[in-house]
Amino acid sequence: MPVLGTVSSGWKTQGSSILPGLLLTTLIAAIALGLNRLSNLHTLNPLLIAVLLGIGWRQWGVVPVAYRPGIKFAMKRVLRLAVILLGLRLSLADVMAVGPWGLGMVTIGTFSTFYLTCWLGRRLGVNPRLTQLIAAGTSICGASAVVATNPVVEGSEEDMTYAIATITGFGTLAMLTYPLVSSLLQLSPPAFGLWCGASVHEVAQVIATAFQNGDLSGEVATVTKLSRVLLVVPIIISLGWQTNHLSKPGQPPRPIPVPWFVLFFCVLVVANSLGMAAPAIKIIVLNGNQFLLCLSLAAMGLETNLASLSQLGLKPVYLAGLSWLFLAVFSLLMMSLSGF
After folding, report:
1. Where would a tag sit more exposed on the chain, N or C end, judged by fewer CB atoms within 10 A?
2. H or E segment to which residue 332 belongs
3. Cα(21)–Cα(89) distance, rounded to whole angstroms?
4. CA distance 52 to 31
5. Which pLDDT band, with edges at 50, 70 and 90, does 164 fall under?
6. How many Cα atoms within 13 Å fall on the side-chain side of residue 94?
7. Cβ atoms 101, 340 nearer than 8 A
């Protein structure tokens, strides 16, 4: 089985060209987006497709050592740029449009799910970094939250890949089951939209699920979901503090890290709120950002060792499933208590 070379000098970007690796990841990203546009694959997240293509290329293709600088550049630098640009999706007006109860429900559900997942991960014996990635992805916004969180918790490529795969899988299951549950419970269009936005993982999955029940459900779900995305900021800062500030016994505490890419994300949210980004430019940037995310995750797939991934076992799947069920049921209960 061909794998990337193990020569340590292959990792060094100094004096090495990043172009070969970037060309390879660009090719895989383009293929992923192309496959996503096929009629029978459009419900699959292109980020997941990019990861799977990258994994397949590594396992069954030849990836020379010379490609590694570009792959690593895409996996780190390009990835953080893509997370920053996600800020153009959200404005403070969108957040306020959800209303006090909606914002409270989203906030309580997000933080409850995050910390419950961390607790369950410890009980199940899942490694802490993978647990934190699953917690962030489930509670906030799927693959994008995993991508944003991974540099802070310092998870491995295998952890990141497993987290994205499990979270995307349960998000896809939600797309199929939520409309059926809505029919059984006879949820109103606004209630169904609020439920989708508060508990389905990916932005694309929220939109695909909620609009099955009409435009009103889709609009409420979209605004709710984008408000939920903003909670990635306090969670990442909290995780960064836990990862870097809490020192081992006998070692002095390290300073609290400053997640600069998250701060720039907030800057773009404010800029978008003030109308500083023209709508046409936003569309171009966000469409291009989808490509950057696919490119980065293709690089992550190319760095993923399936042998190492298989050693993680099924416990992370159980963790992701329990986390998803908790958030779905908890959100429904909060809506019923509010009479929404």
Report:
1. N
2. helix 315-338
3. 29
4. 11
5. confident
6. 24
7. yes
